[in-house]
Amino acid sequence: MFKVAGLNYARGRCSVLQDINFESDAPEIIGVLGENGVGKTTLMRLIAGAVMPKKGASITLDGLAGYALKSAVAFIPNLNWVRKRDTIAEVLDFYRAGYPDFNQERWNEVNKTLRLNEQDQVSALSKGMLERLIFALTVSRDAKVFMLDEPFSGVDVLTRRKLLQTLIQWVPEDATILMSTHEIAEIEPVIDRVLILKDAHIIVDQTIDDIRDNEHMTLEQYYVQRYVEDNWGIEL
Ligand SMILES: Nc1ncnc2c1ncn2[C@@H]1O[C@H](COP(=O)(O)OP(=O)(O)OP(=O)(O)O)[C@@H](O)[C@H]1O
After folding, report:
1. Domain 2-233 part of CATH 3.40.50.300
2. How many degrees, rounded to 5, is the angle at CA 134 between CA 133 and CA 136?
């Protein structure tokens, strides 16, 4: 069981996340939605241990916390740590050394779709190719919690569809995946559940089946309805 409880985070005087609570029983794919700047990346950075929450928060995986939890979480927000001349092969070497749970077979399999050339320099990759690399590195670990932060925003539509369709096959069966995106319609067929963030809080934590069966709406319609008053005149 992956559990986030009493999570609060502020930047200076500005409260970014307030009283965030949710649990996940793997396997589960959770979409994390919300407007720009609402705190989706921050939530992932908090879970990854890249930033510290306010006192009183608890983030645990099967009772593990701190470093033990950190090593079971796969998250790469960017590749700022890569030196300018590094090739993908060199980044892979570094990554393998840093993460003993790196799964070479999975990398090979994922890269059949992503077609990354290991001799290419990372600094010369296009935005979309860089996103492919971040995605491949993230899912190639045998982690228990995977966090994909807008993984496909620069990836072409065909590759994106293929990645989404095959995501379930690539990640370990006992894992929870958190995936933030603005492409709501695209992820709906893939995710089990959604967390919608607004004004620093989780305003929706519901399964996709529940939204379909009880609200009789698509996820995007439900998102618009729950997010803005009068739907901002957006036709549902
Ligand atoms: N390095 C930073 N310095 C100051 N404030 C920051 C920094 N990074 C994020 N923030 C602030 O924290 C808040 C949450 O940002 P975050 O990046 O988590 O949002 P997001 O939901 O991921 O947004 P987007 O959908 O645009 O990617 C925003 O108000 C943002 O301005």
Report:
1. yes
2. 65
When computed from its CA atoms, the radius of gyration of the chain, rounded to whole angstroms, is 18
Question: CA-CA distance, 32 to 134, in Å (whole number)?
Answer: 18
Give the Å distance between the CA of 108 and the centre of ligand 1.
33
Q: Which atom of ligand 1 is nearest to the CA of 39?
A: 18
Inform me whether the pLDDT recorded for 235 exceeds 80.
no
pLDDT band for position 236 (cuts 50, 70, 90): low
Tell me how far the alpha carbon of residue 43 lies from the centroid of ligand 1, in angstroms: 10
Write down the domain spans for the chain. 2-233
Cα separation, 86 vs 154, whole angstroms:
22
The ipTM assigned to this model is: 0.96
pLDDT digit string, tens, across residues 22-66? 999 999 999 999 999 999 999 999 999 999 999 999 999 998 998
**Nearest Cα residue to atom 29 of ligand 1:** 37
Sign of dihedral through CA atoms 8, 9, 10, 16? Answer: negative
Query: In the structure, what pLDDT confidence band is assigned to residue 227 with cuts at 50, 70 and 90?
Result: confident
- Looking at the DSSP assignment, which residues form a beta bridge with residue 64? 61
Instruction: Work out which ligand 1 atom sits closest to the CA atom of 44.
Output: 18
Tell whether ligand 1 has an atom less than 6 A from the beta carbon of residue 37. yes
State which ligand 1 atom lies nearest to the alpha carbon of 43: 18
Measured from the Cβ of residue 85, the count of other Cβ atoms closer than 10 Å reads 10
User: Measuring CA to CA, which residue among 33, 27, 26, 58 is closest to residue 195?
Assistant: 33
Q: Is 141 in the pocket of ligand 1 (CB under 6 A)?
A: no
Q: What is the position in ligand 1's atom list of the atom closest to the CA of 34? A: 21
